[in-house]
Design a protein that fits this description.
Chain lengths: ~325, ~300
């Protein structure tokens, strides 16, 4: 059912030039996105999740940022080399984006209608009246009460959750193939979070939109993602279907992440697990596994060379020397 | 909104009253008086003059008399130019100053914001460096250097422009060029730097990233999404700037012999011409107050989060 690949990212590299050196924010990222799939990208702050996705849209602030390698194949074209004016026809139309903080992502100086209408007029050649009508329809779709009245309000007249609904309405107005959601629920409180995620899931199914969900919340991933990529220091260290990832995490980093989730019913005295150390500085990374200084299983070779991604089971990949050396699974269920 | 305007307008009056009161007494605290001459004036004459201008009365009486005069719209007779009253000087020279001031402000706004946008969009390129260097010069070189240099080059060397004068002279409107450019230079520079910084900041905001993600083109983003917000600091600077350009025109009016109010502003202070000082102070205060009032109103048009009730 979910085989048709619509987006293929291969060896994507995005670097930022700074005074201290080149920051390798995204280093060799590859993944595929199937039609209607919901793909989670998880990782801690600074792991390159957002930069990866801004690179797909070519929205990296440049300078200092630059996509220095790899390709992004979408509808038979490599977006990395598509000229800007053509890229603009894709943004907001075929691939759209919603962001973390709905309080700052809508223009506070313009009416909601003004901001929604321009998407319809730009990508679907509608006249203003029709676009206004469509905007009301979209607001109704995302569950804004009295949309015909609220559409002409300003963003400050909406609550955080409502604004995120407006953002979703705006992003989905052209029925995009892909919706990139950059931590869409992080800035919201928990009940609103659940509503927003539910809404995204429901609408993407209705509009046949695939979702790339960027988050650092493993609960969100478990809730709505089909597949997960775990990012660390600018690269994807593990890729797996969600259920399998939670059941049998392969990469020591993933294992550490899952172990650090507080569990209900655990005794209070037990200290919460945490991965020792700090993520590496992304400036001038040496050619070695970026996780080895924090890894319990680090070996000689980890300090010498970055491992290639290696398939482990169906639709699963992991970037770790443990699985290069011996093909059998290192530990079946270290979490349990 | 209409109610707000009225309330706000009535609120201006106490401010003005405070300014008048403080100025009235401060002027009289300064050493010297309007009738001091290098050559001593005979006592009898001095007494007569002081009597004529009610200077022999207690100061509180003088103050009360002055307030009553103002309420009747009379700024009193000039102490130094016995044939004229202050109203005459202001009515005859204020329009010139206003014209010079608003043309300079217009030029500074147009060029300042224009180059601000250009520099922000082409940040850290030679275009940016070029305009910002000009702006630094505009801020650091004083009027009384820029004016004479322009005059020397364009009038004395190239004979393209008349050295001085104003629109009522034989040369006509061409006379405004140099005074306007000279007066505008500082404000152009300041506005260019201010709008550049503000636009760059807005360009980095989340909502501009959203606009980009919607596929909007650069110019649409700039003029529809960026400028409205980025102009807020510029607008709030405009109020005091306009008042400053009016008083700042003193130097330019002297250099280019423009018959504006500035001359009286300076001379009256030197002459201790009490009523003329008060007259110019009141006029400048009113301009400043009105400009700030306009700024507040423009603000509410730019930013929907600000409402006046």
């Amino acid at each position: 059912m979910k085989d048709e690949t619509i987006l293929r990212v291969k060896g994507l590299q995005t670097h930022f030039k700074t005074d201290d050196g080149i920051v390798q924010a995204v280093e060799d990222v590859s993944f595929e996105l199937a039609e209607k799939e919901t793909l989670g990208i998880v990782g801690e702050s600074g792991s390159g999740k957002s930069v990866t996705n801004l690179s797909l849209m070519k929205l990296i602030p440049s300078p200092p940022g630059k996509i220095v390698g790899g390709e992004v194949l979408f509808e038979g074209e490599d977006l990395v080399h598509v000229p800007e004016n053509q890229m603009r026809r894709i943004r907001g139309n075929k691939i759209s984006m919603i962001f973390q903080d709905p309080m700052t992502c809508l223009n506070p100086f313009l009416r909601i209608s003004t901001q929604m209408i321009e998407v319809f007029m730009l990508h679907q050649n509608m006249d203003k009246k029709r676009a206004h009508q469509e905007s009301i329809e979209m607001l109704k779709l995302v569950g804004i009460p009295k949309p015909e009245k609220r559409v002409d309000d300003y963003p400050h007249q909406f609550s955080g959750g409502m604004r995120q609904r407006v953002m979703i309405a705006m992003a989905l107005s052209c029925k995009p193939k892909i919706l990139i959601a950059d931590e869409p629920s992080t800035a919201l409180d928990v009940t609103i979070q659940a509503q927003i995620l539910e809404l995204m899931k429901e609408l993407s199914a209705k509009l046949n939109t695939a979702i790339i969900m960027i988050t650092h919340d493993l609960g969100v991933v478990a809730g709505i993602c089909d597949n997960v990529c775990v990012m660390y220091a600018g690269t994807i260290v593990e890729k797996a279907p969600t259920e399998e990832l939670y059941k049998t995490p392969k990469h020591p980093y993933t294992q550490g992440l899952l172990n650090s989730i507080p569990k209900l019913g655990k005794r209070r005295e037990d200290k919460l697990y945490s991965i020792e150390g700090q993520p590496p500085n992304l400036i001038n990374l040496p050619d070695c596994c970026s996780f080895y200084p924090r890894c319990e299983f680090a070996m000689e070779i980890c300090t010498k060379k970055m491992p290639e991604a290696i398939p482990v089971g169906e639709k699963r990949e992991v970037k770790c020397w443990l699985y290069h050396e011996k093909k059998e699974v290192f530990r079946d269920s270290p979490v349990a | 909104m209409g109610k707000y305007f009225i309330r706000r307008f009535l609120g201006l009056l106490p401010t003005l009253f405070v300014i008048i009161t403080i100025s009235f007494f401060m002027i009289r605290l300064a050493p010297g008086g309007p009738f001091d001459e290098e050559k001593a004036v005979p006592q009898e004459i001095l007494v007569n003059i002081e009597k004529k201008y009610h200077m022999d009365e207690p100061i509180v009486m003088q103050y009360g008399r002055y307030l009553l005069d103002i309420l009747r719209g009379d700024l009193g007779p000039s102490f130094r130019y016995p044939d004229h009253d202050v109203n005459f000087f202001i009515v005859s020279s204020l329009p010139t100053s206003l014209l010079l001031g608003s043309m300079s402000m217009g030029l500074a706004l147009f060029l300042g914001i224009g180059s601000g946008i250009l520099c922000a969009v082409r940040q850290n390129t030679w275009v940016d460096y070029f305009f910002m260097s000009i702006a630094v010069m505009g801020i650091s070189i004083p009027l009384f250097v820029i004016g004479p240099v322009l005059m020397y080059f364009f009038a004395l060397k190239m004979h393209w422009l008349p050295t001085s004068g104003w629109v009522d002279s034989r040369a006509g409107w061409i006379t405004v060029l140099m005074p306007v450019v000279t007066l505008a230079s500082y404000y152009f520079a300041y506005l260019a730097r201010l709008s550049r910084a503000s636009i760059i900041e807005t360009l980095r905001s989340d909502y501009v990233r959203t606009a980009r993600a919607k596929g909007l083109s650069g110019p649409v983003i700039m003029f529809k999404h960026v400028l409205k917000g980025a102009m807020l600091p510029v607008v709030s600077y405009l109020g005091p700037a306009f008042a400053a350009i009016m008083t700042g025109s003193v130097v330019v009016e002297q250099i280019f012999r423009v018959p504006g109010l500035g001359k009286f502003f300076v001379q009256s202070a030197f002459n201790r011409d009490y009523t003329l000082i008060m007259g110019t102070v009141i006029v400048y205060s009113i301009i400043l107050i009105i400009m700030n009032f306009i700024v507040d109103i423009v603000y509410s048009f730019l930013d929907p989060r600000i409402t006046y009730k």
